[in-house]
Design goal:
The protein is of the alpha/beta class. It contains twelve helices and 13 strands.
């Protein structure tokens, strides 16, 4: 049996796991990301977390075939540096070299959303499929594209930014500074904004009751909960949100033609209340749907473990 070390790293937590070649996580270890510390100190914390996971598995680092790290941002193949991580204010930092200095085995680094997509493709909801589109609906819209069981991110690894495809020309401003991105309409943040706007326009709706009359208490579940209670305003909010999401996915399907689409993030917890109308709208909005069909949309299966599995398997699938 071969073993791989996967690390899921973000602005809040560092989680490392030992994964075997059947994608089973043998042991995990978690530490808080000390965002206030220097780049070198945080990388040392990542290494410490990784070694702790290996120890928890009763192994040594030499038992690992490779170390894989999923990190927010992109590594430039030209400069071998992480170009930008807004959570930590890292710009052009030598993450690959700094990581490699801590490990005596090969180290591979890719975008964290890409790693999560790979994890779902190999061991999660898209297991058995070669061509997969994954979207994570959270603060933004993340995701990844898997082609032939490998991460696709273009010539410079800057591709696959699903949330920043354009949905509405000149539309709402996105956090990236552009107008009309899918993220500005189909993220959890966007749904919260849409819910608050509807609540203010229709104070008689159950949306106000659902959040105790406090707009600050609105979350991505508020509109779905009120819609299930039969509130017409909430149902309109949910329907519009799902339509935005379906429109964005339909464009991606027309270009990529994946076999399956996987939805992750907190909104995916709505399960069939999200999936049934989303799959129907995708059939209505996708080019050549009647002739070529459309891929099914399903919910992610691995949760937070997807990034660990995908990162671990970088050493097995990407080299």
């Amino acid at each position: 049996m071969k073993y791989y070390l996967g690390i899921d790293f973000g602005g809040t937590n560092i989680v490392a796991g030992v994964v075997d070649e059947t994608y089973r996580i043998i042991a995990k270890h978690r530490n808080r990301t000390r965002r206030e510390e220097s780049f070198e100190t945080i990388v040392a914390d990542i290494a410490e977390t990784a070694y702790a996971a290996v120890s928890d598995a009763g192994m040594t680092i030499r038992d690992m075939e490779s170390v894989g790290l999923g990190a927010p941002g992109s590594i430039s193949p030209q400069t071998n540096k992480l170009l930008y991580n807004n959570n930590l204010n890292w710009y052009n930092v030598p993450l690959p070299d700094e990581m490699a200095s801590h490990f005596p085995v090969p180290v591979l680094i890719r975008n964290d959303a890409d790693c999560a997509a790979l994890g779902e493709a190999l061991a999660g909801a898209a297991n058995g499929y070669d061509h997969v589109l994954t979207l994570t609906l959270g603060t933004g819209v993340g995701g990844g594209i898997i082609v032939g069981k490998k991460i696709f991110s273009g010539c410079d690894r800057m591709g696959g930014e699903i949330g920043h495809t354009k949905l509405i020309f000149g539309g709402a401003r996105c956090t990236c500074g552009q107008l009309g991105c899918l993220e500005a309409y189909a993220s959890a943040t966007a749904l919260i904004r849409q819910t608050i706007e509807a609540m203010e326009e229709h104070p008689e709706s159950l949306l106000s009751e659902q959040c105790g009359g406090d707009p600050a208490a609105v979350d991505a579940q508020t509109a779905f909960d009120a819609a299930r209670r039969g509130d017409r305003t909430a149902q309109e909010v949910v329907d519009r949100f799902i339509t935005y999401l379906a429109a964005g996915i339909s464009s991606l399907v027309a270009v990529i033609r994946p076999q399956i689409v996987v939805i992750g993030g907190g909104i995916s917890n709505e399960r069939e209340y999200l999936l049934t109308p989303l799959n129907q709208k995708l059939k209505e909005l996708t080019y050549s749907a009647a002739q070529a069909g459309v891929p099914p949309v399903v919910c992610a299966a691995l949760g937070n473990d997807a990034g660990i599995v995908g990162a671990a398997m970088l050493g097995r699938t990407q080299i």
